[in-house]
Design brief:
Layout (H helix, E strand, L loop, with lengths): L26 H10 L3 E3 L2 E3 L9 H16 L4 H14 L8 E2 L4 E2 L15 H10 L3 H21 L22 E3 H6 L1 H10 L6 H22 E2 L4 E2 L2 E3 L25 H17 L7 H18 L7 E2 L15 E3 L2 E3 L8 E2 H16 L5 H19 E2 L6 E2 L2 E2 L16 H6 L5 E2 L3 H18 L3
Antiparallel strand pairs: 1-2, 3-4, 5-8, 6-7, 9-12, 10-11, 13-14, 15-16
Helix pairs in contact: 1-2, 1-14, 2-3, 2-14, 4-5, 7-8, 7-9, 8-10, 9-10, 9-11, 11-12, 11-14, 12-14
């Protein structure tokens, strides 16, 4: 493990381009400047500035997306300045602590994958600091990355050897022996990016073993959650489905331990993590072909369930708007939850991520270029037609599922059912939330990167 925590080097390509869409500015820039840097939500919490929004996987997604826009448009120095301020707001001077502000308590909870995700911003920030000769700042960020990777690789709670899924990272401490698709984007993807940027500093055997650990997380979840009939993965899986915090899990085969439904954004997190990992993972690693096959398999499923009219995707992927919450709700231990009649709806955050994945997968040669580029273009057009408006003179992104999860035992409302995803207290439909802002920026950057070459 010591070899894995050596000094960090980072390489980032920056290419400036413009698109030919006829907009006064590229869509990525419009979203960054209207919503990415200011005036967005992390769940229920409104943020008037990215720089002081605080450490969170949602604000971290926005910040990382803003950096991707900066890579494409390096003249936009205000983008990286804002993300640098965001990092400095939560990172101690020596980089050995990351705080939740303004309370100054640790932002990295025990065995919590969500708390690690914002660390992706440090890679380009280190590159930028080194390019300016600021080794102190680069070391500060490098120390923070080391803290995050150490916490994950060495200290994070894992599924034990006596259970299926041995070695899998728990999603969070309060979800024992559970792995969620969401978590793959939060932690293993960051772990893989760290390995990629440290490849020349780690012994071959240690590097190979670490990549096997990263791949293990994806393989466990895919093997347990993928349904070949539907060509999608269930939101989550529990290695101990009879444990009280896994009350939502299937108790019998097939798909024992799986949650009941196919939630769009969870598939987005999974697909987004895979397309990023496959860019970095050594192609001669024994698990590379498995991950590539799994990626192509789930993308074929996403292509199957893309709405043919709008080019977007529904909140619950395998249904259309004819499916709705049943008005009766879910009964758990004699209590009723999730009562309502909300219909399934076209959801924006997942659509943005799928457009990003299709564009990037096609660009990297991981997917058939013609098929997936056309599907991505249709999704990108649908994003703008169905989810973006300029009411009040500002850009707004609509039709966002605010949040979704499963359990724990103290919250029986989070059942993972159709009723929950459409009428849950935390799954309400909202707008200008960071999980869509971030994915829309990512998709727009990929679109503009491709458009510049045409």
């Amino acid at each position: 493990m010591k070899a894995l925590l050596s000094a960090l080097t980072v390489g980032v390509c920056a290419v400036a381009c413009t698109n030919n869409s006829g907009q006064t500015k590229p869509l990525s820039q419009e979203i960054v400047e209207s919503r990415g840097l200011v005036d967005f939500y992390c769940g229920n919490s409104h943020k008037d500035s990215l720089a002081t929004s605080g450490w969170d996987y949602v604000s971290g997604l926005v910040a990382n997306a803003v950096l991707k826009a900066y890579e494409l448009y390096p003249e936009k120095s205000e983008y990286i300045d804002a993300v640098r301020d965001y990092a400095n707001y939560s990172t101690s001077e020596d980089g050995n602590e990351i705080f939740k502000r303004p309370k100054n308590v640790t932002a990295l909870g025990e065995s919590n994958v969500d708390d690690l995700a914002a660390g992706k911003i440090y890679f380009p920030l280190i590159k930028d600091a080194l390019s300016k000769g600021d080794t102190a700042l680069a070391n500060r960020y490098n120390n923070a990355l080391t803290l995050i990777v150490t916490k994950l690789a060495r200290d994070h709670q894992r599924i034990s050897n006596d259970l299926e899924g041995t070695g899998g990272f728990w999603h969070k401490k309060r979800y024992p022996n559970q792995m969620w698709l969401d978590g793959l984007y939060m932690a293993p993807a960051l772990y893989g990016e760290w390995l990629f940027n440290n490849a020349n500093r780690i012994s071959h055997d240690s590097l190979y073993s670490a990549w096997s650990d990263v791949a293990r997380q994806f393989i466990i979840l895919h093997n347990h959650t993928y349904n070949p009939d539907v060509q999608l993965c269930y939101h989550a899986w529990s290695a101990t489905p009879d444990e009280e915090n896994s009350f939502w899990a299937r108790k019998e085969a097939p798909y024992k331990g799986c949650s009941p439904e196919f939630w769009a954004r969870s598939m987005g997190w999974y697909a987004g993590a895979l397309v990023d990992i496959l860019e970095w993972m050594p192609k001669d690693h024994a698990d590379y072909e498995t991950l590539l096959e799994n990626f192509q398999t789930i993308c074929a499923g996403l292509l199957r369930w893309q709405d043919k009219t709008s080019g977007t995707w529904y909140q619950l992927l395998q249904y259309d708007a004819n499916v709705a919450a049943d008005g009766k709700g879910d009964i758990v231990d004699g209590e009723t939850f999730n009562v309502g009649t909300q219909s399934n709806y076209l959801e924006s955050s997942a659509t943005g991520m799928f457009a990003y994945v299709f564009y990037k997968g096609a660009r990297l040669g991981l997917l058939d270029s013609n098929t997936y580029k056309q599907a991505a273009d249709k999704a990108y057009d649908g994003m703008q037609k169905h989810f973006i408006n300029h009411e009040g003179g500002v850009l707004n992104i609509t039709n966002i599922c605010a949040s979704a999860g499963l359990g724990p035992a103290k919250d029986h409302s989070r059942t993972g059912t159709i009723n929950y995803y459409l009428n849950g207290k935390d799954t309400r439909i909202t707008q200008n939330e960071g999980k869509a802002i971030g994915t829309f920026i990512l998709a727009a950057v990929e679109h503009e990167r491709v458009a510049d070459k045409q």
